[in-house]
Amino acid sequence: xxxxxxxxxxxxxxxxxxxxxxxVVDDEEYLLCCPECQTKFIDKKRFYIKELKRKYEKNKNxxxxxx
Length: 67
Description:
alpha+beta; 3-stranded mixed sheet
């Protein structure tokens, strides 16, 4: 299972122990920091997942190009 270590709504970095809430979607775990982010994530789940993955891929490509 893949775990994202940033809240997909606000971007804060956290661990599962510090997360207010977490949810598994398509065998990937999403950590959320507070009730507000939980509500936003539940309301627009696919949007936030898409944005988080887009940012992840962009950062991965930037890091790859630096090597």
